[in-house]
Amino acid sequence: MYAYIGITDTNGLTEYKQARFSSFSKGLKKLAEWLAKYSCTEVCMESSGKYWIPVFNILEKTCFVTLAHPKYTKPQKGNKTDVKDAKWICDLFMCDMIKPSFIPSPEIRQLCDLIRYLFKLTNMLTGEKNRAQNCLTISNLKLDDVFSDVFGNSSRSITNYMLDHPCERFDVAPFVDGRCKTPVEEIQAAGCYLKPLLVQIANALLKSKKHPDLKERYHRIKTRRGHKKAIIAVCKMLLTAIWNVLSKLESYNPEGFLEHRPVNEAKILTKSQALELFRKRGYTIIDDSVVNS
Question: Which has fewest Cβ within 10 Å: 7, 62, 135, 173?
Fold first, then answer.
């Protein structure tokens, strides 16, 4: 690893100091001592993979380290060597032409490492659960059809008993928790399939011109809370309408969802603003001549 120090005197002349150090901890400590020898407190280094982290950990204790993205320190084309790269980064840093990258404090960096590791372990756990569920499926054990959580207490007690007593017929009732009899688990199991279907139906109906009630509710909520909240509100609207149709055996009536708001007399709109308002609410505007013909 090569290091360059640029020392500019009062006459504008720059003198360079060059040295080579090992990338082990002992060599990095010698680098810190070498920088302190020339009273160098500002260091610029290029970020390359994970190799910059050991150097940064040693130098941040005694220097203000600027970590530069490689796109800001890209050298000119030619004979590229480590020595030339070190001198090039030194010149750029002295001319204040390098934008520093944000590096959080050591405590935050440690917390980020723990969070990344936790996320990785969670993904590994999910993958192992999927692999175990596939093993149950190919073994003709469709526990996922009767349990919302295959790795719950009831399901695990059944699988553990089958592993301890292979090829034995037994009654599963003693292993099933009493809470599994409630319909809440069935609702939760069906929700993951019903929600994506309702979202697809809602997106398709919003493109249609036959349902201004859906468009009106969607645009009214979207302006305040965004697309995702608005589309879920339309899904809830559809689910409510389906329940009423099936339970009351009545035809769908959109009048119950359309809001007839009184006109605010103090509100004055131009003709173009009024036309744009109607277009946003799903109305298609045509000329009178087209209607008469």
Answer: 173
CB 58 within 8 A of CB 32: yes
The full DSSP string for 240-278 is: HHHHHHHHH-----GGGT---PPP-TT----HHHHHHHH
Contact predicate 4/90, CB 8 Å: yes
Determine the Cα–Cα distance for residues 247 and 223; give it in Å rounded to an integer. 33
Query: HSE of 12 in the Cβ direction (CA atoms, 13 Å)?
Result: 1
Burial 122-148 (b: 16+ CB within 10 A, else e): eeeeeeeeeeeeeebeeeebebeebbb
Paired tokens of 146 = 């009767």
Output the pLDDT for position 190: 37
CATH of 2-103, one of 1.20.58, 3.40.50, 4.10.40, 2.40.50: 3.40.50
The pLDDT assigned to 256 comes to 61
190-231 tens-digit pLDDT: 344 567 778 888 888 888 878 777 888 888 888 888 888 888
User: Tokens for 80?
Assistant: 């590229």
Tell me the pLDDT tens digit for each residue of 123-144: 898 889 888 888 877 877 777 7
Ramachandran angles phi, psi of 168, nearest 5°: -110, 130
pLDDT tens, position by position, 158-201: 788 878 877 677 676 777 666 655 343 443 343 445 677 788 88
For 274, half-sphere exposure in the C-beta direction (CA atoms, 13 angstrom radius) is 6
